[in-house]
Structures are given as structure tokens and as C-alpha cells.
Amino acid sequence: MKSIIKTVLIALAAAAISTVSMAAEFTKGEVKKIDLKQKKITIKHEELKSLDMPAMTMVFVVSDDTLLAKAKQGSPIEFVAEKVNGKLTVTEIK
Asked: Rounded to a whole number, what is the distance in angstroms from the first to the last CA of the chain?
């Protein structure tokens, strides 16, 4: 029983380490539109490798509306997009 618990703990530790080492991948884009009321942002972006998506212009929801303060229509940005509850969501902007 102790060896099973040890094996499980080692597997969990390895999974945690690999998750931490996967840093968020920022993608370059240009802000085309900001919709404060709907908490959405339209971005013309490069390929989103993490989502296996080609370069295009599309609308994203934002995980936190304070992120919208970091963006200005017509300005270049770097952002992280993820699928959150089935929706393509901007989770970070720098």
C-alpha cells in the first residue's frame, strides 16, 4: 500500500511541475474594437498556437474587465487566450 501511495504522490508532483513549467504563451495582435458593456475585445491576431488557430480577426470575451483598461483601439498588444467554459477568453494582456 505504501508503494502505491508513493507512486501516486510522485505522479502528482510530476504533473504539478509540468503544469508550472508551461508558461502562458503570449500572442501578438492589434486591438480592433473594445466593447466595455459586453466585456469583449476584437483582436486581429497572429497564430494562436496553444489553441491551434490560424491568424485572423475575432472577438474574445475577457476574464477580467480590468484587462480592457490595458488595451486601446488601434494599438498593438500581446495577450494570452484560453478556452474558459467553452468560450475563447483573453486571460492576460501586456
From this structure: 48
Cβ count within 10 A of residue 31? 21
Grid cell of 82 as nine digits: 484560453
pLDDT averaged over every residue in the chain: 85
Q: Is the pLDDT of residue 4 over 80?
A: no
In contact, 57 and 29? CB cutoff 8 Å: no
pLDDT at 52 over 70: yes
Which residue, among 70, 60, 71, has the nearest Cα to 38 in the 3D structure? Answer: 60
The reported pTM is 0.75
How far is it, in rounded angstroms, from Cα 80 to Cα 94?
Answer: 9
